[in-house]
Amino acid sequence: MEQQNYQYQNDSVFVQEGSISKKFFANVFLWMFVALTVSTAAAIFTNQIPGIKDLIRDPLTFKPTTLGYITTFAPLGLVLLMGAGFNKLSFNALLGVFILFSTLLGVSLSSILIFYELGSVVGCFIAAAGIFGIMAFLGYTTEVDLSKFGPILMVGVVGLVIASLVNMFIGSERVDYIMSFFGVAIFTALTAYDVQKIKRIGLGIEESGEQMVATDSKKLAIMAALSLYLDFINIFLFLLRIFGSRK
Fold first, then answer.
1. Domain interval for residue 135
2. Total of domains in the chain
């Protein structure tokens, strides 16, 4: 009888810990969904403002205005703030920066509704969702250790950023087109990599005990949601550059 009671207690602990990991994983995707909703609403609302096109893009050169550059690079600054201030910022402060980031990125993305047909935007969004979902499933279920690919993927991301900055001055459509294929490949792989990493973070929270669950797990969920959100948005934008129909 004592042995049965001991086994029952162990099974109860296992179920409870398993629920902690699943709850963390669910919270990550919940916050990602919140970010996507906020960005979508901000993009649609911004696009409805009269004269917003001329404020974001010069009507003669179609290049970003000062406001256009601010809305483009401000989200990057907020991402850096979230990463650098993770230990210092409270959960509410981190969440506030996350929502502000989602809003500003939505404002920045509103320009795609100016230059691309709505049908192609919706089609690329659905395609990105399909790719993201498949890779997220593979990342969660695979037994292959994807951590060894992390440095390679990070080098690829840095390369894309540098190439994009250089191409801002060159203005080559061919270079942009080629980079888009690399971008889809890199962020598709990053999706599986990040999902597996998030799964391991959830298991690590279980091992850390209730103190970890009560303090840092909520903030970790926000940062994990940010990673997945960036993966999805980049897949969507690169697909749009390849297949999007311009107005």
1. 2-243
2. 1
